[in-house]
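Holo prediction. Input below; ligand is MU-OXO-diiron.
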Amino acid sequence: MHCTRKITDDLTWVGANDRRLAMFEGVYSVPNGVSYNAYLLCDDKTVLFDTVDKAVKQRFLENVAHALAGRPLDYLVVQHMEPDHSAALEDIVRRYPNVKVVCNAKTLAFIKQFHDFDIDAHAQVVAENDILDTGRHKLHFVMAPMVHWPEVMVTYDSTDKTLFSADAFGSFGALNGAIFADEVDFARDYMDEARRYYTNIVGKYGAQTKALLGKASALTIEMICPLHGFVWREKINDIVEKYILWSEYRPEERGVMIAYASVYGNTENAAEILACRLREKGIKTVVFDVSVTPASEIVSASFRWSHLVFASTTYNAGIFVTMEALLNDLVAHNIQNRTVALIENGSWAASSGSLMRKKLEQCKGITVLQNVVSIKSGLKADRLADIDAMAETLLSTFPAADAGTCPTAADGVDPSAMFKLSYGLFILLARDGEKDNGCIINTAAQVTDTPCKISVTVNKASYTCGMIMKTGEFNLSVLSERVPFEIFKRFGFAGGRDTDKFAGIEYDGRTANGIRYLRQYANGAISAKVEQTVDCGTHVVFIGEVTQAFILSNEPSVTYQYYFDHIKPKPPMQKEKVKGFVCKICGYVHQGDELPDDIICPICNHGASAFEPL
Ligand code: FEO
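Structure of the complex:
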């Protein structure tokens, strides 16, 4: 029996979940299962985006047949050839013999490597920026090499502003009935698995992921449909922000991740004591036993935390096996930009410290602290000072605030402390004769309960301020979390003197005082008559008695912080920061102003002609 979910009126999830898989790619444990996502678009033409792993092929084929409802399948877009997304490709071609397989040249070669059917009879080869017109929808193909394989491409549906993102923005974990990230508590229950997925599967290819984010930043994206995990239609910035950090190898949190390899508990003891000393200094810590915790979780944590400590006993004159495997994994995943401290143990010839240093110094932007704590068998009282010194040295690399140090009066006023005040976001509205106007403000509060009075603060230079000065009346629309950025552009970025900010708006009404209010995107409206005006220089504070107030919805009010986190579009990737050339074949990035004539791509071995400027 089919098991599908509607994404939009004409887009259906036709993927499937697998909770029996022990090891994803044979390496990564997936205790919560994994989803293989595929999507069917039913427009004038029908389009299937990718297929699934062989383990769930039967359910997927039933899903596709059901969603097609008897229609033929016109196109299969192959965005990624890894077999967890392409195992059913041949089955689709056999069941729908007139289907066109939309792929790029690299994908076509991979299809021939993995399959034996006559793909040439079906292939429709596309390149960067090619468009497939399916009726209402226009599908734009965007190459995303090495996110995670060289043939990867993503698809942008410019009609519904949906990005079919292949492996990007995916996550481990079966979907459990939910399909949208906003149907679950993603930050609490799934972000760790999204991080573990990205860092272990795509983490090595930060530059290529960043290149894709750069391309995506030029698009208006309202929904992301990845090949694993949840579909994003709300708070898209939550996941995009993480990808920006991860792709640039920037930590998410300031704190110390301590990973130790201990045979008889003595190295563990040193790691535990260091964790306690750091906590006493106000530094966050997490501790892992590398012989117990799967490496993929520690790799993921290494991408999350700013400081890393590795503690290992010396074993066969080398690093302990599980620690050596972890460090190899981290180097392979391109970990960068971290401060690292090392603890070694050795009963007769401790060498694990220098060997760990050698491995980690291969990585870019890794600062390994000079002083290694060296233990002979067990930590003795006379060496405790070494642990304290390491804790102090680590502490010195944190900003004072992280360490809980109290600033003194001599430190003066830090203007950024003002951003710790919480603010809402509102539209302040006024009417002067036939002229309606309004502007965005972030400061409004109830002043007294009986009589009910509110205060609003508005820039003196604004047209709305002048209108309220003249008329002595205003309305306040309290914006909710559903407010789109367009409303901020309309009421915040344009002047009211020369423009009609309400032009084309069909969703506002008027209160008893005749002033407009927003019906949509606001959860409440308040009318007030000005009683007091306080001139504060650049701004005016109006205190007014409330004459009318009503609720429009129970959606939460938007805060200033929420606006920045979830609504305001992120600036385009800092393309200017990375100067260089990208290999068109595999996505390898050569950084620098000049491309050497004799360059050979270290990933795909193509020469200079395969490169183009970033
Ligand atoms: Fe789930 Fe790179 O594939």
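The two ends are 48 Å apart (CA to CA). That is the main takeaway for now.
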